[in-house]
Every structure is written in C-alpha cells, then in structure tokens.
Amino acid sequence: xxxxxxxxxxxxxxxxxxxxxxxxxxxxKFILPLAIIPAIFATLYxxxxxxxxxxxSGLLIAYFIPPAGxxxxxxxAILMGYPWWLVTLVIFLLDVAVSLFVVxxxxxxxxxxxxxxxxxxxxxxxxxxxDTQPWLRRFSTIGLVLFVxxxxxxxxxxxxAIVGRLLGLxxxxxxxxxxxxxxxxxxxxxxGADVLLDVYRQNPALGIGILAAIVTAVLAAIIGWRxxxxxxxxxxxx
Length: 238
What we know:
238 residues, single chain, 81% helix
C-alpha cells in the first residue's frame, strides 16, 4: 500500500474557517497589539547600552502621557544622541500597536476601567473635532491621514483610530491612514531635528535662528488654528 499524502495537506477552506473562529481571533487581536510594545522594549534592551536603553525607555513611556507627543519626544531623543531612523521606527511601531488595539478591540476596551476612560475622552474630542471640521467627513481618508500627521496634542494614533471609527471607515482603512500619518509625521520631525542639530554644530547662531523661526511659525499656526476653531464653534448652532 502507498501512503496517501493528500490527506496530510490542509484544505484551503480550513484556514478561512480557522481565521473566522472568534475563539481564536478574539484573543489574538487583543494580545498581538499589546505584545508589540514589550517586544519593542526587549529589542532596545538587546541593541542599546543599558543606560541609553533606560533613557530612551523613559522617553517612550512619556510619549503616552499628554501633553507629550512626536513634536517633543522625537527631537529630545535625537538631541540625546539617538539616530533619527531608530527614533522614527520605534515611535511608528508604538503607533502601530496603539492603532491596532483600538481598531480591533474598541468595544471591549471601553469596558476596561482606565483604558475605557481614555477612549471615551478621545471619542468626545473626536466628535467635537469632526463637528467643527466638516471637510474631514468629505475627505475622510485624506483627512484622517492629515489628522494623524499634524503633530498637535490629541492628534496621535489613538485619537486617529477613534476618529476613523466615528467617520465610519472600515478597520483596514483606519489602520492604513493612521500608519501613513504616523510614519510621515515621525520622519519629517526626526529628519528635521537631525538636520537642525547638524546645522547647530557647524554654526550655533544659524541653528538657533532657524529653531526660533520654526517655533515662531508653529506657534503662529497653532494660534491661528485655535482661532479658526473658535469661530467655527461660535457659528455652529447649539
């Protein structure tokens, strides 16, 4: 008798049935995003000297605490001597983990005491933002990328995923928009900080002048945006 090797091969449909099993995919969708974060710290522990690992870990933990964000954590890390590509990659992976968790586990996460309060505050901020920015609904995909891209407080991966849900986008599109906005924003901030640091080393006066001009322009943009939002809120009927 000859062995029938075809019986050892799984049928193509069995994989779809396996992935459709909520008892398997449910825990996987909950655990996988959470596993990314300790994996990042473990990798940094292996590739960085211990003191540098501790300092970078502190910055990454601060990244989750408002009002810290890409616009502050990334330049600080580069000023401390970390390469721009490492900082960009780590921040992007953290955003991937957060957005995946929110996209996959939003309803469940609302029931977790601390996480649920954070998500509810994000939903409130997201509703207020979408109500005052009607263009965001018209250009939902591009609007969500821009929402995550601009490094302002409250426009990170978590709130971006929440806004995507409020806009009614499917999960894959929300995740893609958050990732696109995150990597673009992180790259621009990291490369800009790295170039500015090189300019400062060669010509301190020029470096300080460029930094002052950037800070002034950013503050002016923020003040202008806040005034624009205030005018929109005043026009919106209650």
